[in-house]
Amino acid sequence: MAPMAEPETIPDVVRAHARETPDVAAFTYGEETISFADLEQGARRAANGLKSLGVKAGERISFIGKNHPLYFEVLLGAAKIGAVMTPVNWRLAGPEVSYILDNCEARIVFVGEGFGEVVDRVRAENKRIETVIAIDAPDEAPIDYRTWRDGFPADDSDLKLTADDDLLQLYTSGTTGRPKGAVMTHGSILSSRDSTGEAEELRPWQEPVEGDATLLAMPCFHISGTGTGLGTLVAGTTSIVLPEYDPTKALDLIENYNISKIFMVPAAIQIMLNHPRVSEVDFSRLKIITYGASPIPLELMKAAMDRFGCGFVQMYGMTETSGTIVALDPEDHVPEGSPKMRSVGTALPGVELKIVDEDGNTLPPDTVGEIATRSSKNMSRYWNNPEATAATIDADGWLLTGDAGYMDEDGYLYIHDRMKDMIISGGENIYPAEVENAVYSNPAVADVAVIGVPDDKWGEAVKACVVLKDGAEQTEADIIAHAREHIAGYKCPKSVDFIDALPRNPSGKVLRRELREPYWKGKDRAVN
């Protein structure tokens, strides 16, 4: 596929594809196919609809629902008028949803099937929300998206956008118990995709190929989901959209469509390999499985390589880097294993990496420190949070990832530990502070610390170490049930240890490493 002239913005990309390859499917969803021409027309109408609601450039709109191609149409329509899409994790508890919608100051909320009641509850508290529009879910809100959209003309916006304009705001788990809105620009997203322009810089697995179809099964409230969809839009290829990851449906789509690329977290790969139908499915058309969010055991990798018979690419990145910045190429994946397979690969073109000590000094190869990165892929800032932004991105543009690791002489990056106590369970980022706040609100709890412990299925599982108040009685089930009232189920502790006191240093800081040590004994790194 010949590269088109390098675009500055996502609307530029889709506009060009709609002109040059109008009939190519941008998205397939069940029985529905949305061509690039359809997408462009729908986005234009959505843009004019949003303008009629008074949405201005720089304003945030929101979406809560499972994956749907019309989410991308709304995102594109908002982008045409300079507005910013803010998807909300539909797995969150009501108070968490309420916080994000309040923090991003969204007046307009688009809702998918099954989430109208959640938005109604939030709306009762958040008086800023003015309009709720249902996407293919007529019972969820008074306004139906398609009917609303089609009431507006398909005139294109004449707003001049630049690569530095905001495009997307994704919320990350919070080190202090509150999530932060990472703001990505058109430029940071475009420089992170299977892009255009300097095609000679792309690695072979990144190059867009005519006829490619990518399975989009990871949630769009993550960079893995929205990034996949935007990546295929930039490449001019097709996303086959699943509302959420379902191994049975994924196998059916692989079998019935010419799916050539999939992104999955290791837990999803394991679930697919364990599916009773996996031995019956023809995977010969599958070219690449990309995976990330957590490490993958060698034995699982061997089984996946044997069954799927395609190339594998490990990806390392984060929301704050608009997705992937480091990749381990297919040729580095060898069934017998190698030292390089313990790494996450080498920096993608245009990405700088360094390992720094606590004072910011660059460390030599094979020395563990914090991983820092600088590139056009980095987010611009945290929304309305200059203090957190300054603590993450320095004056020279270096972003601190919060991961501890080292680089070898060949530039391969190895993850050793996490600097910020983050837990990754099934590809979901969980900060202990969020869980601790929920557990501590239980009136029987005197003190609590939350840690991640190894888990065969999810990589890591959340464990709460709880000190009860004198005379209080609680069971493990009581603690977990109380937490579930305040935070998403996947963040809740999967187990609880009742202890007499938390280990602390002289300044009172909890020594999490002492709590974690017995569970990670014998592991060569403190991530799983």
Enumerate how many helices there are, as a single number: 15
Please tally the β strands and state the result.
Answer: 26
Radius of gyration of CA atoms, rounded to a whole number:
23 Å
Largest sheet: 9 strands, mixed
Quickly describe the structure.
By secondary structure, the protein is α/β, with parallel strands linked by helices. It contains 15 helices and 26 strands. α1 (10-20) packs across α2, α2 (36-52) crosses α3 and α10 packs across α11.
Describe the structure.
The chain is α/β, with parallel strands linked by helices and 528 residues long. Helix content is 28%, strand content 25%. The protein has a 9-stranded mixed beta sheet with strand order 2-1-11-10-12-13-14-15-16, with helices on both faces. Strands 4-3-5-6-7 form a 5-stranded parallel beta sheet, with helices on both faces. Strand 3 (60-64), helix 3 (69-80) and strand 4 form a beta-alpha-beta unit. Helix 1 packs across helix 2 and helix 2 (36-52) crosses helix 3.
